[in-house]
Amino acid sequence: MAPMTRCFADDQKGVVGSDVVEYYRKRAADGIGLIITEGTVISPQGKGNPGIPGLYSLEHIAAWKKVTEAVHAEGGTIIAQIWHVGRLTHHELTGGLSPQAPSAMLQTLFFLKNHLLSGLSRGVKFIMKYPMIRIKMTSE
Prior knowledge:
Blueprint: H1 18-29, E1 34-41, H2 58-73, E2 77-83, E3 100-101, E4 107-117, E5 120-130, E6 134-135
Parallel strand pairs: 1-2, 3-6
Antiparallel strand pairs: 4-5
Helix pairs in contact: 1-2
């Protein structure tokens, strides 16, 4: 199953819940042999959308382990698609943390913010000016 951004994780912590466990379990039960997860950020400073799950803390690992166990119980295989949006994040998405990227460049983009209402994804366009970023060092 190809990855799809779902934005169903807790927006503040990036932790997936029982709804995500059930979503992936059902896909495995339907006979999907290999499931590639939605984009899963490897750092809070790599988050590009609200509601994106993380895979950088023990709490994240414990939550994804429930997903993995449910998929395996149905005979499926699952792999995490790791994700870091680099420059195209914003401090409002990262809990106030400065975005990290390999180069410091200014960016102004139209940003599509997902609003989930009654199970339907509604996109609202707005312009966001991105602040200058801190360059990620090799030691990090």
